[in-house]
């Protein structure tokens, strides 16, 4: 049961990594400093005050950079592999001690990295669609929604992980359907 709970927390944190790479790590660091979360062996560095401060600064820089035109798109090219790595790390940091080291890393890469990559691709598509349809004017709104989602998902992942997994699955299905609908609409407009 502990393994499944750890994977649920990992899925939620990985999805949050796809919105903003540093936010889930910051939330995990703050939670471990307050005693609400104990990272797995090898990830005790999350509980260091200096790491929390560094992650806070990195989070602030990342959130700010997404409000700068053109920089947001440049960050998306870097954020996709970074989200995969961060998703893997966050999942590994909460994985159960019941699994072997190999099984823990395999689960972290597949579940954490896979979730982060899938959700990140949707956020890149939404930003691209926002740029194409509004000329980038709506991108700050998208950015605000992304960092708020990252904070909420990170916090809720530690509090109610199973609910977060359900919400993440619903979000992914909704995003895929929305993107398909937009693609069909653009194809319909171009053929008319």
Describe this structure in words.
With 192 residues, this protein is mostly helical. 82% of the residues lie in helices and 0% in strands. It is built from 7 helices and no strands. It has helices at residues 2-19, 22-33, 49-65, 71-94, 101-134, 139-159, 161-191. The radius of gyration is 17 Å and the shape is globular. The N and C termini lie far apart (55 Å). Pfam families: DUF4126. It comes from Acinetobacter bouvetii DSM 14964 = CIP 107468.
What is this entry, summarized?
This protein is 82% helix and 0% strand. It has 192 residues and is an all-alpha fold. The protein has one domain.
If you average the pLDDT, what whole number results? Answer: 86
The string of secondary-structure elements, in order, is HHHHHHH
Put simply, the count of helices is: 7
Low-confidence stretches: none
Radius of gyration over all CA atoms, rounded: 17 Å
